[in-house]
Amino acid sequence: MQTLTVQLADRSYPIHIGSGLLRAGDVLRAAIGRRDVLLVSNVTVAPLYAGLAKAALRGNRIVEVTLPDGEQHKTLATAGRVFDVLVANRLGRDVVVLALGGGVIGDLAGFVAACYQRGVDLVQVPTTLLAHVDSSVGGKTAVNHPGGKNLIGAFHQPIAVVSDTELLASLPDRELRSGIAEIIKYGLIRDAGFFAWLERNVEALLARDPAALRHAIYRSCEIKAEIVGRDEREQGERAILNLGHTFGHAIEAATGYVEWLHGEAVATGLLIAADMSRRLGRLTAEDVERVRRLLERAGLPAQAPRIGVDGARGYMQIDKKVRAGRVRLVLLQRIGAAEFTGDYPDAALTATLEAHFA
Ligand code: NAD
Ligand code: GLY
């Protein structure tokens, strides 16, 4: 097992990464102690892994909430159901909310933990690759509003993340690939050497090679932990974690959040951001080709749906990073370095949108 720490003074917490951690049980027991547990999962994940969590916590009082599966259930109404269970079972401020699932369960259970009695402890046990490398770390919690994704939320850090790669064995291939998109993002924003490692090892990741998965998860979490440790509330630097996301959100919104998985939309968004960076003279055409080739080898889409330039612009306007009507974007300075900026020529954005969406 390897352990990283997200450094946030008295709210610092460990990310334990290894295979078989839930089965072994000790890190989960150490994080929770003898406290009451609200185990939040969904109808897909609970039958697979809730038994392991309960065995690890044998002797604790455990109340289970098993939610329907899907992004469409990441709502205030579903959070309300979880609050009802907490209240009905008289769970107090010392309860630990245990999120067992992908990003949907992690975000929703995290939001519940942030609000219940003004905040109770949260432990994340991610079960998708995307949750291992992104959503379980960093304390962003949220539910969706009919007017937009993740509009209602709070920053609430977990007290521990137990990242057990054994749980990825049952993950559908398409979900695995979606997580690889976020891993490629980390190489692009922060570490050219890691990007080159991904170029050499993408097939090993797709084959779920345990050592390759552990390395990719460790390096991704290390980069995220470092950035969150410096800018927890996204006052600046943390925004670079959203490389490709503004374009990706336009794709997800235009296709009703059902056709494209989040990571697939991010993948295409990464390529579009790389292409815009090339138009600004920062990346070479060969750099953009490297991004395209890696995404293609990972089985990720490179072609955005043809939603039109005005369509794309409209959806980009609802992005949370818009200020005074100006769409701020994460752009690459080179492979391995990114910046968050609203200072770019409009013509470069228009040309980019025409190339990818028209
Ligand atoms: P998800 O949680 O919907 O999981 C994808 C699918 O895989 C679901 O059907 C789920 O039931 C299933 N599944 C999960 N683990 C499994 C396993 N081990 N075996 C078999 N099936 C399994 O989707 P996701 O991609 O994990 O997360 C997407 C969500 O994460 C979005 O709501 C997004 O907004 C959020 N997100 C949050 C952050 C953050 O920082 N908080 C970052 C990125 C994404
Ligand atoms: N997923 C982006 C962030 O956590 O900031």
Total of DSSP H or I helical runs spanning 4+ residues: 14
Q: Helical amount among residues, as a percent range?
A: 40-55%
Beta content comes to 15-25%
Shape: globular
CATH top level assignment of the largest domain: Mainly Alpha
Whole-number tally of structural domains: 2
CATH superfamily of the largest domain: Dehydroquinate synthase-like - alpha domain
Number of beta-strand segments: 11
Bound molecules: nicotinamide-adenine-dinucleotide, glycine
Low-confidence stretches: none
Write the topology of this structure.
Layout: E1 2-6, E2 13-18, H1 21-24, H2 26-32, E3 37-42, H3 46-56, E4 62-67, H4 76-88, E5 96-101, H5 103-115, E6 121-126, H6 129-135, E7 140-145, E8 148-155, E9 160-164, H7 173-190, H8 192-206, H9 210-230, H10 245-254, H11 262-279, H12 285-297, H13 309-316, E10 329-334, E11 337-341, H14 346-357
Parallel strand pairs: 2-9, 3-4, 3-5, 5-6, 6-9
Antiparallel strand pairs: 1-2, 7-8, 10-11
The structure holds nicotinamide-adenine-dinucleotide (NAD) and glycine.
What tags apply to this protein structure?
about 350 residues; alpha/beta; Rossmann fold; Dehydroquinate synthase-like, alpha domain; 2 domains; two-stranded antiparallel ribbon; globular; binds nicotinamide-adenine-dinucleotide; binds glycine
Structural account:
The chain is of the alpha/beta class. It folds into two domains: 2-170, 3-Layer(aba) Sandwich (Rossmann fold); 183-357, Up-down Bundle (Dehydroquinate synthase-like, alpha domain), CATH 1.20.1090. 47% of the residues lie in helices and 18% in strands. The chain has 14 helices and eleven strands. The strands form three sheets. Strands 1-2-9-6-5-3-4 form a seven-stranded mixed sheet, with helices on both faces. A two-stranded antiparallel ribbon has the order 7-8. A hairpin with a 2-residue loop joins strand 10 (329-334) and strand 11. The longest helix is centred in the middle third of the chain and has 21 residues, at 210-230. The chain is globular and about 60 Å long. 49% of the residues are buried. The model has no long low-confidence stretch (mean pLDDT 96).
